[in-house]
Amino acid sequence: MTNFYSIKDLERITGIKAHTIRIWEKRYNIVEPERTDSNIRHYSDADLKRIMNVSILVNNGHKISKVASLNEPELSEKILELNTVYSAGRSGQIDSLVVAMIELDEVKFEKILNASITNTGFEDTLFNVIYPLLNKIGVLWQIGSIKPSHEHFISNLIRQKLYVAIDALSPDRTANNKSFLLVLPEWELHDIGLLVYNFLIRKKGHNTIFLGQGVPLEDVAAVKENIRPDVLVTSFSSSVLMEEMIRYLRELSGLFPGKPVYVGGIQLDKLCSKLPPNIYKVPNALDFRDEVLSKL
After folding, report:
1. pLDDT tens-digit series, residues 234-251
2. Which residues of 10-44 are buried (b: 16+ CB within 10 A; e: fewer)?
3. Bridge-partner residues for 280, per DSSP?
4. How far is CA 224 from its chain centroid?
5. Cα 223 → chain centroid
6. Residues 6 or more apart in contact with residue 175 via CB below 8 angstroms
7. What pLDDT digit, counting tens, does each position of 136-174 carry?
8. Which 3 state secondary structure label does DSSP give 216?
9. Among 39, 58, 90, 160, fewest CB within 10 Å belongs to which?
């Protein structure tokens, strides 16, 4: 099924002004959008990818008159060359990764992301490329322009990168370091945020016990005797009732009385202030790194 976009959708996704898109159409025939019965432009997936690719090259010094003459394989080759030598800039890399996702092109995704990791390191890439990429994917999801297959594709590739980065970090088992239990509630299947916390904790040299997604509280209780963590971390990304999240946090707090429990995720806004005193909300991973880990 082909998705269709208004010119305002394209402006929101690409950051290119609608006026500029119209000029590119008129002067350079970049795309030829279809029109509705009322003469309103609407653009296809192919149009979206072409406009994003053209924008990346233009923003990196290529003349629009030259770029406009390139066919799709030539455009893709230029984009890959640009990103492989790490000269595309952050926005260009993110847009290129979005195109790789839409095309389900793992090779392109790997080359672009690996170039960033090689040049600036994994943590920098995480916060300046992967996080903005996920935000842009959220916009695409809101307007219904990506399918579950796209979300699964990109999530699995990012998850693989996190596994590799975490595996490369050996915890420093000294007396001064703390142990963290990382666990998600039974209804929660989105574990990328928790994997990011795992990476940040390990990078600080602390120990982690990663239980991951969809763990019933009775299972957490069952391992309590063997696991005596100093800190607990959880996250809420899936939409559930506020009461359900509060119930979970109260029970988690009761299982580990006196231990700090840090809560992240996009559902935090649902949580009221009536929480146990050892529950702390963390707006994002940067706050967790800079405000929590730096003080331990």
Report:
1. 999 888 888 899 999 999
2. bbbbbebeeeebeebbeeeebbebeeeeeeebbbb
3. 262
4. 32
5. 31
6. none
7. 787 676 556 667 888 889 999 999 999 999 999 976 666
8. coil
9. 39
Same domain, 70 and 116: yes
Amino acid at 150: H
Under DSSP, the state recorded for 171 is: P
C-alpha 46/C-alpha 60 separation (Å) is 22
Could you say which of 167, 200, 227 is where a domain stops? 167
Two structure tokens written together for 138: 């959220």
CB contact at 8 A, 274 and 293: no
Please state the separation of Cα 281 from the chain's center in Å.
20
Q: Report the distance separating Cα 45 and Cα 239, nearest Å.
A: 29
Structural domain contains residue 172? no
The DSSP string of 157-178 is HHHHHHHHHHHTPPP---TT--
pLDDT tens by residue, 75-113: 878 877 765 554 556 777 888 888 888 888 999 899 889
Give the pTM: 0.76
